[in-house]
Amino acid sequence: MSRICAYSRCRLWAAAVLYIHTCFSMKSVSTGSGFVGAAPSREGEAPNGAAGGRSGRGVSSPAPAALRGRSWLLGVRGDCRSPAPPLLLEAERGEGRVTLQPAQLPKRARPPDPAPALGTMVKIVTVKTKAYPDQKPGTSGLRKRVKVFQGNANYAENFIQSIISTTDPAERQGATLVVGGDGRFYMKEAIQLIIRIAAANGIGHLVIGQNGILSTPAVSCIIRKIKAIGGIILTASHNPGGPNGDFGIKFNTSNGGPAPEGITDKIFQISKTIEEYAICPDLNVDLSTIGKQQFDLENKFKPFTVEIVDSVEAYANMLRNIFDFSALKELLSGQNHLKIRIDAMHGVVGPYVKKILCEELGAAANSAVNCVPLEDFGGHHPDPNLTYAADLVQTMKTGEYDFGAAFDGDGDRNMILGKHGFFVNPSDSVAVIAANIFSIPYFQQTGVRGFARSMPTSGAIDRVAKATKIALYETPTGWKFFGNLMDASKLSLCGEESFGTGSDHIREKDGLWAVLAWLSIIAVRKQSVEEILKDHWQKYGRNFFTRYDYEEVDADGANKMMKDLETMFFDRSFVGKKLSAGDKSYTVEKADNFEYSDPVDGSISRNQGLRLIFADGSRIIFRLSGTGSAGATVRLYIDSYEKDAPKIYEDPQVMLAPLISIALKLSQLHERTGRTGPTVIT
Description:
Elements: E1 11-18, E2 29-32, E3 35-37, E4 59-61, E5 72-79, E6 88-93, E7 96-100, E8 125-128, E9 142-145, H1 146-151, H2 155-165, H3 169-172, E10 176-181, H4 187-200, E11 205-213, H5 216-226, E12 230-234, E13 246-253, H6 261-273, E14 276-279, E15 291-295, E16 304-309, H7 313-320, H8 325-333, E17 340-343, H9 350-360, E18 368-369, H10 390-397, E19 403-407, E20 414-418, E21 423-424, H11 426-435, H12 441-446, E22 451-454, H13 460-468, E23 472-475, H14 480-487, E24 493-496, E25 500-503, H15 511-525, H16 529-540, E26 542-553, H17 555-570, E27 578-581, E28 584-593, E29 596-597, E30 604-605, E31 610-614, E32 619-624, E33 632-642, H18 652-655, H19 657-667, H20 669-673, E34 680-681
Parallel strand pairs: 10-11, 10-12, 11-16, 17-18, 17-19, 22-23, 22-24
Antiparallel strand pairs: 1-5, 2-3, 2-4, 5-6, 6-7, 8-14, 9-13, 12-13, 15-16, 19-20, 20-21, 24-25, 26-33, 26-34, 27-28, 28-31, 29-30, 31-32, 32-33
């Protein structure tokens, strides 16, 4: 149903003045939104100044001969109470009236077939449903196997309704919501559900990326730009896709960031007691065509609007105002330009890479690979690390390229590589950006308010904060914890060891932003990635860091292991104990389950990871991940600082071997999980 329905509930009367001056040649009749009419035009000119004979409201076609050379008032008449009203076009002038049947009009100027639309309102219905007990959002929304969403009645509908129900009914009436996803399997079906449920619940305006495609950073950008009440993102981030893969639904609030715990807890509570949801089951929207579509709903005074937008442009424009694009273009396409290799891993960021890095900044077209978003990410795991982005690593090892980067499914994570496959640990990456932050024009304008890292992330950025006398915050894992600090103007740059880096330009981690930040540093310093990082270690010392991931292990066994470790850590006799491996000994200085008190609102987040901190500052951390969709993922983190110059270039696995041995022995991780080693080592 188009907007025309608002004018056709009984007898349709619509009129537009058609002026055809005798000294002009009548070129066309333009129809749109139920009106017929055209402005005069000179020979060779399109009416209303529209190129190619198109007006802003409709299509233009040659006018009937009976109307040429005079001024007429055109009216549309028809009884829309009947299934197929006899629409007529009437042209009146003082000396007479001409009635035109649709057949007399050129095909594209005829009124649209009214049978399925005119006089019909989009119905809103209430559907009874049964609650599910397992819809608790994790670190970044609800993630489950696709089959869970498809195989359980109303599973997605329940969760979408629960999200919308967290907003006060008065607040959401006529409000704007942003919707988009990473292109994975089941995304388009989920978007249509969101459209139907949002419309039925009073949301007035949806802004959706073309074909449903919007990166997570782009959603955050658009929410903030248009002051939407929030956004729903269809992604399972770095988890695999396809019919047998994962799907996720994530809610971002009006600041553009992931919903804080207070809201996700509310979503979960609603989902456990939901008995019904409202939906417009007959509402279907074309996601492929940029522009606005309007629909009239039962018992709603104002139309419901769906606006399909270019997936890239708003985000690209934001980046133009953050970085020096002229300098970056010279770096990527000038004389002696940097050769780059970017792997989009068939995720959402592909079109952004092509538009920004290749088309706008001049990188060679073959610099970017796997840039077409696919529902199953080409059968690969869209996680930018040394294991799942092995193709990029091998390509970089050839020495053909100076700079490499990979992104995850929804475009918020990144991996940075130098020539010959030189790997930049994510903890080091954010520290290097912090140390060179004024290479980015944005920070020259805004200044730097503070740095932050998630608790498991290495202390590399702490060294920079201390040297520059800039405040440093340590938060639980999850980007939502950075949002409060940013909104309170306490934070400018932050990062997580899980390949997430970002700043206060939006409220999400941002993979492409991180790549442009690194390229900006290279442009200013005129050094290679490896040279920049080694200089950093020489100045600040090095935090050796590794993470072991044990994916999809038995959840009961993992929980039992964590409980037993907590009991051990909380034993008073444990502090002061010496733990040894080989010829290395470490004295326990602190053992706890990390607890965070938000300095902005005072909220407390408990049980955020078991920490074992030694007298020399080395750390062993155990966490259960909140981003998996099946079983449990155990993460083991090891962090140890070294300032002795001869040792800073050693292999992290060699330097950390004693601490790794201690961690595995304390936890009996392999014995408890039945694994002989980790799924992924970072």
